[in-house]
């Protein structure tokens, strides 16, 4: 039996299909591949090879949800859907100022804040209600645009200078310069 090329087999099979259908017109070339199926009869020991046309379908992969879809951008309903923190330069500066607030007023001890900003937060402006006392409200001159301006406006720099001077005085006590100043002050009192 002569060797038959795959292309010739396809052509022969198409012609056979046409004859079975009863049409004499040549069938158009199909892009569907033919699949070889081996059929074995139980009663007959010989196996026959039958070609069947099988439509192959390409399965599209399911769209993978993006990270943004899987992870919520809110803290959830128990936290009133608090949005994720928007890390703008203004927010970063204000967060750093809040973390270092203990340096601005050494007399008031504040609990230290963590270095990283909160994952979920919202920045807003406190508006005084009509039920607030008039004396508790800020005047227009006292209102500032940023937290930094507000803190610097209320900061008493004399407090810091006085604290620094007190520390330096304690450090200088017991040294030669301190003793000489003390002796000179005693002499002035005697005269």
Automatic annotation (TrEMBL):
Pfam families, sorted: Fcf2 (PF08698)
InterPro entries: Fcf2/DNTTIP2 (IPR039883), Fcf2_C (IPR014810)
Swiss-Prot/TrEMBL keywords: Nucleus
Molecular function terms from GO: RNA binding
Full protein name: rRNA-processing protein fcf2
Main localisation: nucleus
Annotated compartments: Nucleus, Nucleolus
GO CC terms, sorted: nucleolus
